[in-house]
Amino acid sequence: MTLPPPAAPPSRTPAGFFDARALTEPVNPAEVDAFARAHRRANPTTAGQIVAWVLAIVALLLIVPVAGVLLLGIGYAIGRDGGVLLGGLVGLLLFGGLTVGVIALVRRANRQRALTRFRLSRFAAANAMTYLDRIDAPPLPGLIFQAGSGRMSTDVLRGTAPRFVEFGNYQYTTSNGKQSQTHRWGYVAVKLDVPLPNIILDALGNNTLGRSLAAGFRRDQRLSLEGDFDRYFSLYCPEGYEVDALYLFTPDVMARFIDHAAELDVEIVDDWLFLYTKREASTLDPATWAWLFGAVGALLVKLDQWARWRDERLRAQAAPAAPSAASPPAPGAPALPFTAPATLLTPPPVGVAPPGRRLRRRSPWIIVGIVLGAVFLVTTAPFALGILVMLTSR
Q: Which of 69, 124, 245, 345 is the most exposed place for a label (fewest CB within 10 A)?
């Protein structure tokens, strides 16, 4: 992602507080209308919107004549010429009422959307952030940003100090060939100082109806941590990175997550920290912003210690395969009773070795095998039971 320039408007509120007045205070309708006009000029109609309008008009042209003929036929069957006149009058009234109702609903929806954009834009400006109405296919490495089609972030608020943080709502669509489903998330994206191993904290408090962020990952990557942490989160880390996960999730860091993010799924991937929720993150509700700002603020104070993490595996990869003998000291250099190995004085480079960059997913063939086995048992069990009964009854 290309980060915005750090020139953000100064915050009008002290650190640790935020100005929520723009979310709830009365607004000037003229200002909202001017904002909406400026937004339309800056965002011309997309091809998708044009296609939607064309389909709606075509559907209207197909439905109205059929409905009109049907009403005229019913009127003629009931009252001949007088019935036809009555049917035509009823059809006109229905068509007029439907047209007025649809126009009113569209205008109301557009007005409400413009008001939401206006409030969020003012809220962002009052709290040292910038507002973006929409980002198509956001280039973020998080788990939810890689799935489906029609990927889109909306109502995005970004801040750059003390580090880059992005709040937004996200949606994508999946399809099985017969029906499609739109998935909606709220998210917070925090830029880290260094790349870290791919770690997922699956919040147990939001796993309703068996839905889990980590459902597609291998269970042998789950790591149990001390204290009450396992009551709130299931932690997944790449195999071989258990010690690194313990280094990152010290007791004080775990306490921060439990106290402030127990209802949020968490993902660390590359140099990003993501917080996910199944509700809107960018909203006009001040309580939601207080919750998210509190969670982010509590975690930011602990991210500096994560910046010191290094992957020792990169040191081994950077070392020569066959180290040569120590080079002789330069002429005139004082003799030392020892020579410090250069590899011990040089820290590992910033980054993550390939095995730690992504969690390993479950093999789809295992799931297929389980399903086929269950089908086989269900279909063959009655026959096997019948044969067993016949053999034992003799």
A: 345
Residue of higher predicted confidence among 8 and 158:
158
Of residues 326 and 63, more confidence is placed in: 63
Give the integer Cα–Cα distance in Å for 363 and 380. 26
Specify if 340 maps to a domain: no
Q: Residue 355 corresponds to which amino acid?
A: P
Same domain, 103 and 169: no
What DSSP string describes 228-291?
THHHHEEEE--TT-HHHHHHHS-HHHHHHHHHH-TTSEEEEEEEEEEEEESS-SS-S-HHHHHH
**Long-range interactions of 160-164: CB distance < 8 A, separation 24+:** 160/3, 160/4, 160/5, 160/6, 160/8, 161/6, 161/8, 161/128, 162/300, 163/190, 163/191, 163/300, 163/303, 164/3, 164/190, 164/191
Residue 371 lies in a domain: no
pLDDT digits (tens, 9 = 90+) for 201-217: 999 888 764 567 777 88
Listed ranges 89-98, 261-270, 320-329; the one with the highest mean pLDDT? 261-270
Max CA pair span of the chain: 122
**How many distinct helices (H) and strands (E) make up the chain?**
11, 7
Report the alpha-carbon distance of residue 244 to residue 309 in Å, rounded: 8
For the chain, the straight-line distance linking the first and the last C-alpha, in angstroms and rounded, comes to 75
Residue-wise burial string across 133-164, b where 16 or more C-beta atoms lie within 10 A, e elsewhere = bebeebebbbbbbeebeebebbbbbbbbeeeb
Whether 143 and 266 map to the same domain: the answer is yes
If you average pLDDT over residues 359-377, what whole number do you get? 60
pLDDT at 41: 84
Domain extent at residue 94: 21-126
Angle between helices 286-306 and 251-260 (to 10 degrees): 170
C-alpha–C-alpha distance, residues 345 and 274, integer Å: 34
Shortest CA distance to 358 belongs to which of 210, 176, 183, 142? 142
Count, residues in the chain: 394
Q: Do 208 and 304 lie in a common domain?
A: yes
Q: How far apart are CA 344 and CA 26, in angstroms?
A: 63
* Inside any domain, residue 105: yes
